[in-house]
Amino acid sequence: MDKERLQDELRIFRDRNFLRQKLRSSLTVYVLLALSYLLIVILFVVSLSRVSMLSSQLNEMRKELKRNNSSNDFKLFPCGPEAREWEYFSGKCYYFSLHATSWQRAKELCEEEHSFLAIINSHAKQNFIMYRTRNQRFWIGLSDRNAEGEWKWIDGSDSTTGFTYWKEGEPNNSDQNEDCAHVWTYGEWNDVHCTYECYYICEKPAPP
Ligand SMILES: *[C@@H]1O[C@H](CO)[C@@H](O)[C@H](O)[C@H]1NC(C)=O
Ligand SMILES: *[C@@H]1O[C@H](CO)[C@@H](O)[C@H](O)[C@H]1NC(C)=O
Ligand SMILES: *[C@@H]1O[C@H](CO)[C@@H](O)[C@H](O)[C@H]1NC(C)=O
Ligand SMILES: [Ca+2]
Ligand SMILES: [Ca+2]
Hints:
By secondary structure, the protein is of the alpha+beta class. Helices cover 46% and strands 16% of the residues. It folds into two domains: 1-76; 86-205, Mannose-Binding Protein A, subunit A (Mannose-Binding Protein A, Chain A). It is rod-shaped, with a radius of gyration of 43 Å. The chain starts with a helix and ends with a strand.
């Protein structure tokens, strides 16, 4: 009788022990699982930040390359690689039109491009324009529309006191109706009626 009870108690004790052990081991598994989740999360965050760092570095490099490229382009095209129809000369940009129009319309077209009809105030500029216009008629920013015989540049400056390059016998105000100036053969200037249609030259400062 006593022996049987002893054996029973022993069995209960063993079962309890077994249960405790089982509990302990599953706890360890949970802890390990939690730890590995944490590790994965940390690794993920770290690699994400590395990737974003790398991509921002790449972006910077790409920007620098672009900047380098565009500074090279600006050496070749000082008026801007996207505005190659503008020709650079001595700190200014010039546009030589491909269409003929009246002086007033030419003035407006230049203004639409944030520029103005060319002002020729030096021999160097006169030469540049002469070579470029090749004996064709091109409007310049010179007129006596406001007062007959008072030739003024489009910026208001008086042309009679500064550089001039009139063709001999010009301005002749033919038919009392020639108030706008253009360059012509040998780049020499002539007055003609302002509704005459010819090419035109726009001018603006070169970009910094
Ligand atoms: C850009 O040009 C500068 C010098 O002009 C040079 O030091 C730099 O390495 C260049 N950058 C790239 C990305 O080529
Ligand atoms: C820089 O210019 C070269 C050729 O001049 C071109 O092959 C390259 O794609 C350009 N790079 C960028 C970032 O614009
Ligand atoms: C006056 O100038 C015009 C050009 O604008 C020319 O055709 C004409 O022959 C000139 N007249 C005289 C008298 O020189
Ligand atoms: Ca006139
Ligand atoms: Ca004339």
